[in-house]
Amino acid sequence: MDVRGAGKESILDCVRVQIFGGGGGTMQEGSKYGNIVRYALDRIGEGAWKAGAKLPSVRAMAERNGCSVNTVLRAYEALQSEGYVYAKPKAGFFVAADPDRPSPRATAAIPFDAASPDESAMPYKEFFEYMTKAVFQRRGALFDYGDPQGLPSLRQALAKHLQDVGLFVDERRIFVVSGSQQALQLLVSMPFPNGKTHVLVEQPTYHGMLRALRTANVPAIGLERTESGIDLERLERHFQSNPIKLFYTASRFHNPTGWSYAKSQRESIARLARKYDVYVVEDDYLADLEHDSRNEPIAANDGCDRIVYVKSFSKTLLPGMRLGLAALPPPLVETFREHKLCADFGTSSLSQNALELYLRNGLFDVHRKSVRATYRDRMTELIRVCRETLPTQVTLDAPAGGIFASLFLPKTLPEAEFARALGAAGVPMVPGERFFLPGFPEAKPLMRISVIRADEAAIRRGVELVAAEARRLLRTTPKERDEASGGHWI
Ligand SMILES: Cc1ncc(COP(=O)(O)O)c(C=O)c1O
Fold it and tell me: What pLDDT was estimated at residue 481?
């Protein structure tokens, strides 16, 4: 949100939280310090002080407000630490350019809508060393295009890495992809040896897959997924009577619900795929967060003969590296190679080399354990706080782990309205409609909640706000809410 586009109230509310650290109570209303911050934000907010403009000198501001130079300095430094202004030695303070200024909402928010990790849980500095090593020790790779399938030595390391999840795949079937999203997009667009045309997706499902289907203009069919999995008879009927090229599934820690399939369901899916000549694309994007080694992927049930196994490094490492892998059944390898080559000639060799060094030195394993524990603790806290705090009409079907869960809403709490209210309260979440095919009935309206960027304390604060918003909306009728907002709900 651009400061200029925001109402004054919202800026100040956020600033109170950001700079003065919490509820209005901690800010001394009317203090000189507060007045200076407020005045500067107003000027910036309404565009009177443009990017690059010099702020009044500290001395002039002190005189104007009848306060000490120190008070002005503290106020300017608070604005600086929040990115609104910057200091030039011996010249004074200047208004920061828009891109350098964080969105007040974004920094004040507890980002329950996040899908990418924060710095605190990621080995950024450590990985940076490996990037540097990749540049210096393997600089030859930077002067070449490399194999579109991926660095052979990295593929060997990945084949070994996959054994940890119970997959024994020859490296000749492994592709390094520029994020698992790329694998999904290529699989959706390319022809399959079974000659079929349609894609079957769980409902709800990962919205990035729905996007890929939409842009590739591929016909899609939905199959309901609930806390107890999918109806296997329905799955069989789809496989039998529709031209299903592939069935896309996130077998564990599903996005957006966090659910995982039971062993018997995973085995049945693999069996039915083989029986009806359907491929399964298993998106195991959170495999590294699994605590129970007996929970193997669907692909472990057929050695990747019918199953395309897709894995991401974005949630446990760095999404900006754009690293993922796809392990393919042999009949798909050549077509996938051709499509991957046309997409980008291969994934960045810099990222690939850094990952290989990182994996080979055993650091990924160490990091994986720590990140797994971090997210498990957060999820445990989310489940506990939701149970204690949310009104009984709003329920959370506890996931086995991972980073996402869904809050299920009663009909009296419309999803879109709740989403807007949560955004305004600084606890944004993603509304369920994003995870459904157009026209597919959302049996239980939902909101996706994520713990990837919220630690336990933030979860506690955030869920309190969510519960308060839910109670407020449940107390009033839609008509009353509409009237209270002057006809348009904000
Ligand atoms: C289920 C699922 N699959 C795939 C992806 C894409 O991840 P990547 O960054 O590896 O492309 C995401 C990203 O959020 C996801 O949630």
Answer: 58
